[in-house]
Design a protein that fits this description.
10-stranded mixed beta sheet; Alpha-Beta Plaits; homodimer; 6 helices; 2 domains; alpha+beta
Chain lengths: 264, 264
């Protein structure tokens, strides 16, 4: 028996999120189905991040146990041969038998992308949130700094969750603005909110994005974000920004936590 | 009566190209249908570039004549309200009544994108051609320089065309390589072949891309491109690279050719 870790990239547009559910196809389900097919026994992966419907990933993580004789590092090739084109395993390796991707310390990086222009760009529409009114990127940057550090992020957590401890640490938030050439506009921009932290509450990145958008529209000043944080009330923050703009970029574990042999 | 020019961006994935045809939905058809709906009379656009099935655009151009009282610059807003999400008009303006987008001098810019990595990136798959074997970008750059200038591009023209004059001028070809972060790979790259010229033969950019890929794989040296050009034989060049990698970036006309009033 061995435990294998997969790093998985997907275009979430056509999926009802990560976690298996009765109402539609999910990423977890297509992975389980394909693993079961190639190993010949029922397999159920354990995911690191149960991304929502429509959210994308470049490096989500999951593990599974198998007695298959396929070498751990060959699972990426074996799986990709049968997976749909919008789900691609980027890497596979053996990990410690007791490594659990949700019960170990880690850093996660997410990006929330906003296309800010007069008209949408059809080549960006699946992977960004379109906004017509011009955003003040500098104000968004100032506002973001109030969120860096260890805080109670209760105001930035969906009420549809049972989680008790809402304290998390945000290591960094960058707000990047890239000019985009269009057929007829000077100041179109792709704005990326890149956020790294030790864990995120349900909808936390999308509520942060929604709140920074309000600041970018001058609906309230950057300092207001400190007040929103102190309120510990979901109603104080901005709305949850749409799923299509969000991509889970990577999850980094301590090598000593997952490295095969570290348990010996 | 006025002539209106549109600059149109589209994700070509779901379309059978630009030009109306019996076997599937096209970009021209969705534009004609929506223009007919909002003006109340039958409209047929004249396109600048009849892109193939699966090819994308950021700035294709077309014109149409109308007696509608909608101001020319408002057509972009009026059309976008009813167009599918993957076809977006970026700009509309009135042009000279005799301006024809295929019978005027212009410069066109195309980009052909290649994702060169161990595994595909699902977020790039619709807009790039995936290649696993590593490409020598420097060799591709050297090869590209043989194509710059005025040449008979008969070797780089599909045999499925009746065109007689196969001389065109390529103003520039750049081969750009951008490192891409992946969950598990150091040297993944997005390679963009950016080409500007005064007109392109049927499949010319895709045959150039296919030929530069052969050079990138060291199947023949960069100098071979001069021999291929001199052969004036389609069989001498590389294969036609897939449509998904190709995007028509922009078409630039002389302002005096299309500016309303220039005919007076």
């Amino acid at each position: 028996m061995k435990r294998v870790m997969l790093r998985v990239a997907y275009d979430g547009t056509e999926y009802c999120g990560w976690q298996v559910q009765p109402n539609g196809i999910t990423i977890e389900e297509v992975l389980n189905r394909q693993l079961t097919r190639i190993t010949g026994t029922e397999v159920a992966v354990i995911g690191a991040s149960r991304t929502d419907s429509g959210v994308h990933a470049k490096g989500n993580v999951c593990v599974f146990d198998t007695e298959s004789r396929i070498p751990a590092e060959k699972f990426a090739f074996a799986l990709n041969a049968g997976l749909p084109q919008d789900v691609v395993v980027q890497n596979s390796c053996e990990v410690a038998a007791d490594f659990h991707p949700r019960h170990c310390d880690c850093h996660k990086t997410y990006e929330y992308r906003i296309y800010n222009a007069t008209f949408p760009d059809p080549l960006l529409r699946r992977y960004s949130h379109f906004l017509y009114h011009k955003l003040d990127v500098e104000a968004m940057r100032q506002a973001a700094q109030y969120l860096v550090g260890e805080h109670d992020f209760k105001s930035f957590c969906s009420v549809n969750t049972q989680v008790k401890d809402t304290v998390r640490r945000v290591n960094s938030i960058e707000v990047l603005a890239e000019p985009r050439q269009t057929a007829a506009e000077e100041d179109a921009k792709l704005i990326t909110i890149r956020i790294n932290g030790n864990g995120f509450l349900y909808n936390m990145v999308r509520i942060i994005a929604g709140t920074l958008i309000q600041v970018g529209f001058h609906r309230y000043p950057p300092e207001q974000v400190a007040t929103i944080l102190a309120a510990k009330d979901r109603a104080a923050a901005g709305e949850t920004a749409p799923a299509c703009g969000l991509t889970l970029i990577e999850i980094c574990y301590q090598e000593s936590d997952y490295r095969k042999g570290s348990e010996e």
